[in-house]
Every structure is written in structure tokens, then in C-alpha cells.
Amino acid sequence: xxxxxxxxxxxxxxxxxxxxxxxxxxxxxxxxxxxxxxxxxxxxxxxxxxxxxxxxxxxxxxxxxxxxxxxxxxxxxxxxxxxxxxxxxxxxxxxxxxxxxxxxx
Length: 105
Fold this sequence. Notes:
Helices cover 31% and strands 17% of the residues.
């Protein structure tokens, strides 16, 4: 994931591959279309691991998740953007908990 999201910077170290303006465009698109997502139409079991929706800096689309029964939704407390980079062990823990539920036999 780091190879996809980061690149070496000219001053040494690393910086994000995608300029902030591009990220802002993606977020605007997600915000516009998030309410149209039909979670019941997903062809496979799905778990969403998200940033903490209680933090004021967290971007969470304005979607009513109360009727979302077909998707497992979990969030990692005290996290925001790039939770896979900031909390990789916790993300992996949620995935490890989810995978056994996929085996129905």
C-alpha cells in the first residue's frame, strides 16, 4: 500500500503520490454519489473498515447506515484518513475476524 500511496520526495523522505487537489476531487465525487450505493446489491460479503466518525476531522459521507444490514461496518477509534497506514495491525485484525465468516461449510 505504501508503494501505491507514497513516492520519494525531492527533499528526501516521502510524500503522497496523489496531490491534495486530486484527493479533494475524489472526496467531492464520493460525497455526491455515496447515497446511491445499494449495499444489498454487492455480489459478495463485504466489511467496511472506516475512520472514527466521531472525530470532527473525519470525512464520512452523509449516508444513513441504519438500514445497512448486508455489510459489516466497523471503525477504528481515534483515526482519520489513511487508517491502513496509520493502524495496519488493527485493520488486519478486523479482516482476520471477518474472513472466517466467509466459510459457510
